[in-house]
Design a protein that fits this description.
Layout (H helix, E strand, L loop, with lengths): L3 E4 L2 E2 L2 E2 L1 H17 L3 E5 L8 H7 L3 E4 L7 H15 L3 E5 L2 H14 L2 E6 L1 E5 L2 E8 L4 E6 L5 E5 L14 E4 L29 E5 L9 H11 L2 E4 L1 H5 L20 E5 L5 H7 L4 E5 L13 E3 L3 H16 L1
Parallel strand pairs: 1-4, 1-6, 4-5, 5-12, 6-11, 7-11, 13-14, 13-15, 15-16, 16-17
Antiparallel strand pairs: 2-3, 8-9, 9-10
C-alpha cells in the first residue's frame, strides 16, 4: 500500500483537531502495510506543530508555504508533494477548504476519491471508506480502485491516538503554481464563536425557541460548555439567525461528541446533518417529536425551563 499522506489544517495559528484525527487514521493504515505517515501543512513554520503531529503518529511533517488560501494553489502544492512522496493513500479534511481543493487534487493525480468519510477499514492493500448516504439513513462502504486512494474525512469522526511517529520536519519547495482566480476580500461577520464543523459539543435550536430574542439563552449554555451554536433550517428561513449556523442537508454536516437539540422536531433534512453525532440530547415538550427516535437521551419538557437549569448546573460543575 506504500505510504500515507495527510493534509492538515491550521486556523488562526492553531492546528485544527482534524489534523491529528487524520494523522492517527493514517498511522493505522500505514502500520498495516509497513508504510510511513507524511503530514503536510501548508505553512512555512511546520516545526511549530511538529510535536502534536508526531504524537498522533506522523513520521514526517512537511511544510509548504503557498500563501493565503486559494483552492487552485493548494491543489497545485498538494499534488507536487504527492509526486515527491508517492503515497498510496491521501487523507484530506472534509472541511470548507478541503471540499474546495480535494477534487482538484484527485483530478491532477488521476485518482478516485471518496468524500465525507466517517469510518475507515482495510481490505488487503485497499482502504474502505464508510460514508453516509440517502440523507444519513444508510451508509455505503466504498473502495477506490485507482493506484492512489483518496478520501476526505469528516471532522470528529476519527479517534486521536497517541502512537508516536518519527516526527522529522521537512520544508517542501512545492509552489502555488499558475492560478486563474484570486481572493479579493473576506467577510467574517457571519462566523460563529466556535466553528460548527470543529466543535465537539453543539447546542442547537429550532422553532421551539419561539423567536430570535431567545438565542442568548442557548448561547449562554453553549458558552458554558465551550460549544458551538447551531440552528435548524426553519429558524434560518425565518430570519432568526444567519445561515452560517444551520445544521442539516442544506447547511453544515457535523459529527460532534454531543449534540444538544433544543426545540427541534427532527425533520429528516436536519437529521442528515447531525445524525452521526456520538451522543444526541433532545429537549422537546412534544413526546412524539421524531428527534426522540435518534436521541441518546431525551427530555420531554419545556426548554425554557430545562436550558437555564442545565446552564446553571454546568456552571457549578465547570466553574
Amino acid at each position: 500500500m506504500a505510504d500515507v499522506l495527510i493534509v492538515g489544517e491550521i486556523k488562526d495559528g492553531e492546528l485544527k483537531k482534524i489534523s491529528r484525527e487524520l494523522t492517527s487514521a493514517g498511522r493505522k493504515i500505514a502500520d498495516a502495510s509497513g508504510g510511513k505517515v507524511h503530514a503536510l501543512l501548508l505553512t512555512d513554520s511546520p516545526d511549530k506543530y511538529a510535536g502534536e503531529l508526531k504524537a498522533a503518529g506522523a513520521d514526517t511533517i512537511i511544510g509548504a508555504a503557498l500563501g493565503d488560501f486559494n483552492p487552485e494553489a493548494y491543489a497545485n502544492g498538494i499534488f507536487a508533494v504527492i509526486q515527491e512522496k508517492k503515497p498510496g493513500v491521501v487523507l484530506m479534511p472534509h472541511s470548507s477548504q478541503g471540499k474546495e481543493y480535494s477534487a482538484r487534487v484527485a483530478i491532477k493525480a488521476n485518482a478516485g476519491i471518496v468524500a465525507d468519510v466517517v469510518g475507515i477499514t482495510l481490505d488487503g492493500n485497499k482502504v474502505i471508506g464508510k460514508k453516509p448516504i440517502y440523507s444519513g439513513k444508510a451508509y455505503a462502504n466504498i473502495k477506490v480502485s485507482s493506484d492512489i486512494q483518496m478520501f476526505t474525512i469528516r471532522a470528529n469522526s476519527q479517534e486521536v491516538t497517541t502512537k508516536e511517529g518519527a516526527g522529522a520536519v521537512e520544508k517542501s519547495s512545492a509552489a502555488a503554481g499558475s492560478v486563474k482566480s484570486k481572493s479579493i476580500s473576506k467577510d467574517l461577520s457571519g462566523g460563529n464563536k466556535v466553528q460548527l464543523a470543529d466543535a465537539s459539543i453543539i447546542v442547537s435550536g429550532g422553532r421551539g425557541i419561539k423567536g430570535p430574542e431567545n438565542w442568548p439563552m442557548l448561547q449562554g449554555l453553549a458558552d458554558t460548555l465551550g460549544a458551538a451554536l447551531g440552528a435548524s433550517r426553519a429558524t434560518v428561513d425565518a430570519g432568526w439567525i444567519s445561515h452560517s449556523h444551520q445544521v442539516g442537508q442544506t447547511g453544515k454536516t457535523v459529527s460532534p461528541n454531543c449534540y444538544i437539540a433544543c426545540g427541534i422536531s427532527g425533520a429528516i433534512q436536519h437529521l442528515a446533518g447531525m445524525g452521526s453525532s456520538k451522543y444526541i440530547v433532545a429537549i422537546n415538550k412534544d413526546p412524539d417529536a421524531p428527534i426522540f427516535k435518534v436521541a441518546t437521551y431525551g427530555v420531554v419538557a419545556d426548554l425554557f425551563e430545562v436550558v437555564p437549569a442545565l446552564t446553571s448546573e454546568f456552571k457549578k460543575v465547570l466553574g
